[in-house]
Amino acid sequence: MSSLYFDNAATTAMRPEVIEEMTDKMTTIYGNASSTHEFGRQAKKVLDDSREILAKSINATDKEIIITSGGTESNNMALRQVAKIKQNEGKHIISTMIEHPSVLRTLEYLEDAGFEVTYLPVNIQGNISVDDVKSALRPDTILVSLMSVNNETGARLPIHEIGKLLKEHQAVFHTDAVQSYGLDSIDVKRDHIDLLSTSAHKINGPKFIGFLYLNRDIFIKPLILGGEQESKRRAGTENVPAIAGFAKAVSLLDDQSKQDKQLFFKQLTTQLLDYLKANKIEFEVNGQLEDQHSYHVLNLWIKGVETDRLQMNLDLNHIAVSGGSACSAGSLEPSHVLTAMYGPDSPRVQESIRISFGEFNTEEQVEVLGSQLIKIISRLLTKNK
């Protein structure tokens, strides 16, 4: 049996068009974009054209786009540098208990530096309340950081409503959009977003490249020091082929294709769930499958089957799924997202898997996944008796 990949929330395979674009740029455009000679100017043009594509994808200007190495660096830059420039106005930050580790670890760093962080709870759907954000706001709140879509459950947070709430407040609004960029319509002006983090490898682009949107009215010092690249906001020679590949991946997407993807992933989700029900597998969806959900992520509680055993057996049958965030791989710690939703004593925390769909998954693949799940779950439950 050929290998099947259902871990697209962790990373995605590059599209052939992206590989072709990067290969071309690696072959023909090898100058340093900071050089003033012909080769440098050629690289600079590719960089500028790519930046314009990235900016337009979120209704920003090219001067508001800072090229980074990806979501982790973007999140670190946003949180650490905004906290630094705003600390004279207050030291209170609001976030949630379900953020990506690159946000949570950065917030811990800021707490050690004297900042106070309010971590908003989530309901059993894995979502937050706008009223909770409103109640947590204080005169000394300087930063609110909330992910757009959760990477473990697919819960879509009410970013637009919170952006409107913060419009008249001094707090800067940051969203980690790594899981929503490329799948949802994003408009930083419409949603009153001040900073936004992305990563190319989640949208069938190359790894180790992304961008941070920074509202033109906010001035931060660079996190990485050195040269004067990225308008003096992020030092380091730009990776022109990777940036061109990122832009190519973005150019292949539009609002209609994003809607089409969500509908197709919903179809795959329904297909798999119907198959499990027909075969009398005891399971529940972690979170909800409603409007406030991105259908590329499906988190399932398989009752009575431990996560690591199910994941290992699927892997032995050449099927890749996840037990949670890829950034927690190798850790014996339970999912902090499911713990926040259901409590540390819930069996869901130890008996859930994440299936995440992507560009190259098919109905035929989902049929194989369902068939293998039935066999493996039935065998493991028999052994447990």
What attributes characterize this protein structure?
seven-stranded mixed sheet; Aspartate Aminotransferase, domain 1; globular; Aspartate Aminotransferase, domain 2; 2 domains; 12 strands; iron-sulfur; metal-binding; three-stranded antiparallel sheet; 385 residues; alpha/beta; PyrdxlP-dep_Trfase_major; single chain
Verbal overview:
This protein has 385 residues and is of the alpha/beta class. The chain is built from twelve helices and twelve strands. The protein has helices spanning 16-28, 38-56, 71-86, 101-112, 130-136, 159-166, 229-232, 240-251, 255-278, 307-316, 336-342, 363-384, and strands spanning 4-5, 65-68, 92-96, 116-120, 141-145, 172-176, 195-197, 210-214, 283-285, 297-302, 319-320, 352-356. The strands form three sheets. Strands 2-8-7-6-5-3-4 form a seven-stranded mixed sheet, sandwiched between helices. The protein has a three-stranded antiparallel sheet with strand order 9-10-12. It has a two-stranded parallel ribbon with strand order 1-11. α1 packs antiparallel against α8 (240-251) and α10 (307-316) crosses α12. The longest helix has 24 residues, at 255-278. The chain is globular.
Q: Which fold name fills CATH's third level, the topology of the largest domain?
A: Aspartate Aminotransferase, domain 2
Overall pLDDT: 96
The separation of the N and C termini measures: 30 Å
Overall tally of structural domains: 2
Radius of gyration: 21 Å
| SSE order | EHHEHEHEHEHEEEHHHEEHEHEH
**What is the overall number of helices?**
12
Sheet having the most strands: 7 strands, mixed
Which percent range describes the beta-strand content? 5-15%
CATH homology group of the largest domain: Type I PLP-dependent aspartate aminotransferase-like (Major domain)
Strand-pairing-aware structural class = alpha/beta
Shape: globular
State the share of residues found in helices, binned by percent.
40-55%
Q: Strand order across the biggest sheet?
A: 2-8-7-6-5-3-4
Number of strands: 12
Name the CATH architecture of the largest domain: 3-Layer(aba) Sandwich
Classified by CATH, the class of the largest domain is Alpha Beta
